[in-house]
Amino acid sequence: MSRTLLITGAGTGIGAATARQVASGNQVLIHYRRSAESAESVAAEVAAAGGRPLLIQADLSDESGCREVADFVSRRVGRLDVLVNNAGGLIRRAAGKELSWSLMQEIFALNTFSTMMLTSLCLPLLEKGTQPCIINVTSIAIRHGAPTATIYGASKGAIDVFTRGLAKELAPAIRVNAVAPGVIDTPFHDQVTSREKMAQFQASTPLGRNGRAEDIAHAIGFLIANPFVTGETLDVNGGLFMR
Ligand SMILES: NC(=O)c1ccc[n+]([C@@H]2O[C@H](COP(=O)([O-])OP(=O)(O)OC[C@H]3O[C@@H](n4cnc5c(N)ncnc54)[C@H](OP(=O)(O)O)[C@@H]3O)[C@@H](O)[C@H]2O)c1
C-alpha cells in the first residue's frame, strides 16, 4: 500500500533520516525551512529508493507558514496518511535568571505552536487518509529536566500532553504518538552544545554512544507501522533516561 507522508524539518537530521526510512513506494512530502540544498539531496535519495518526493519550503514558527504547508498538501495531494511533526530546536540556552519574553515566545512558537497548528490544519487531510497517524518529536528534556534548556523542555512537554489528549480525542480514526529522542548527533547541537558536552553525554549513556538520526527514524517507522499503539511516547535514548 502506497502512503502519503508529510515530514517537517526533513532537510536535515532526524527528519531527513525519517524521509529515507519511509521512502520506498511512498509519496514523501519533504518540508524544509533554510536547508534547501540538503532537502534536494534527501529528495533525490527518496526517489532513488523508489519513493515519490515533493519539496515544501516554509517557516513554521508562525501561523502563515503552517497554513502554506497545509494548503500545499491540500492542493497537490488532497489527503494525508502520516504527519511527522519533527521541525524544532533549542534556539539558545538561557539560565533561569536570563529568561526573556521574546525567547519564550520564539521557543514555544517553533516547538509547540507550530506542531499544534499544523496538526489542526492537517486533520481534515488525515481524515481522508488510510490508517492515518501523527508522530510528534519531543525530547528527553521532558523526562529529566535540562539545565539551561528549561523553556525548550517545557515547550516539548506541552507537546507530550497534547499527544495524549489528541490520541483520546481522535481514536479510533487517527492514532497519535510521540518519540522522545535522547542526545542525537545532528545539526541540532551545532550552536548549542560543545563537543566536550557531547562527550560527557556519551560517557553517561549506558549504551556507550550518542544517538544517530537513524535510531529515531527507526522508532518513528515502528509507530507508523504498529496499528495498536496510540497516546504513547517512545523514549529512544540509549538508556540515558530509564523509567
Ligand atoms: N538532536 C537531538 O539531540 C534531539 C534531542 C531531542 C529532540 N530533538 C528534536 O528532534 C527534532 C529534529 O531535530 P534534529 O536533531 O534532526 O536537528 P536538526 O537537524 O537541526 O533539525 C531541525 C529541523 O527543524 C527545522 N526548523 C528549524 N526551525 C524551523 C522553523 N522556524 N520553521 C520550519 N522548520 C524549522 C530545520 O529546517 P532547516 O534546516 O531547513 O531550517 C531542521 O531541518 C527537533 O524537534 C528537535 O527538537 C533532537
Domains (count): 1
Trace the largest sheet across and list its strands.
Answer: 3-2-1-4-5-6-7
CATH architecture: 3-Layer(aba) Sandwich
Overall mean pLDDT stands at 97
Q: Which ions and ligands are bound to the chains?
A: NADP nicotinamide-adenine-dinucleotide phosphate
Rg (CA only): 17 Å
CATH C-level class is Alpha Beta
Shape: globular
Structural class: alpha/beta
Percent helix, as a range, is 40-55%
Instruction: Assign the CATH topology.
Output: Rossmann fold
State the helix count: 8
Largest β-sheet summary: 7 strands, parallel
Please state roughly what percent of the residues sit in beta strands, choosing from under 5%, 5-15%, 15-25%, 25-35%, 35-45% or over 45%.
5-15%
Q: Which H/E pattern describes the elements?
A: EHEHEHEHEHHEHHE
Could you tell me the number of beta strands?
A: 7
CATH homologous group name: NAD(P)-binding Rossmann-like Domain
